[in-house]
Amino acid sequence: MDINTTKKLNNGVEIPLLGFGVYQAKEGEEAVNAVRWALEAGYRHIDTAAVYQNEESVGRAIIESGIPRDKIFLTTKLWNDDMRKGRQKEAFEESLKRLKTDYVDLYLIHWPVAGKYKESWKVLEELYQSGKVRAIGVSNFHKSHLDDLLADAKVVPAVNQVECHPWLNQEPLFDYCNKLNIALEAWSPLGGTGTGKALLNDERLKAIAAKYNKSAAQVILRWDLQRGIITIPKSVHKERIFANTDIFDFELSKEDMSIINEMNENKRVGPDPDNFNF
To answer: Which residue pairs from 190-198 have beta carbons closer than 8 angstroms and sit at least 24 positions apart in sequence?
Structure first.
């Protein structure tokens, strides 16, 4: 396993297991630099969203990197208000324009907006058939949302991107998605901002990290990859962006994997997909 290791999605498209997230990276130099450093560090999977308001910077950094577009796996997402307003197609075209590309590798419904996500999925299926999207998926979907979507869907989502970290290991959802051949992808893998520091200071993680001469963050990312979960850590700090890739020269033992699995408290740092107000 290395930074180029991929997972085959249910339609045959290959997605790099380790990706780079840009949530909260400010439009302009901060986001451009973050993506540029990520590409320098070897990441070839960049995850953004319309609501992050940094798609232009992501597009610019990719172009300025000189790396061919087809060597980079690019994800963006359909925002809630665009679903409510029936602007799904317009929103997608606006994302393409900001990203300065004529296709994205993965397009996700960002949240399961009640009464809107099923009609939005039909639009994503059309975009997929048109070839402007290589794979389509969802984000923040519980089993109940997936069951509802799949009752009418023609295309099974390729990915479900959800909050996932040692406090919320998503084991039941992961098992369910595996049965449906839907890849699980972890956002906030390090436990989010603020509270994340508490997770990274957990004595169990620190003890495991010391054993492998790694950081707690590197141990968590390695735990994700060994579970077969796609993971997208974010940072705007060059040294952390590079450090998050230094996870391919060790392997966690079964015992250490179990210790981390047992840290689960079903504790969220983000909103519950059954109860959000945006």
So the answer is: 190/165, 190/217, 190/220, 190/221, 190/233, 191/165, 191/166, 191/167, 191/220, 191/269, 192/165, 192/269, 192/270, 193/24, 194/269, 195/269, 196/269
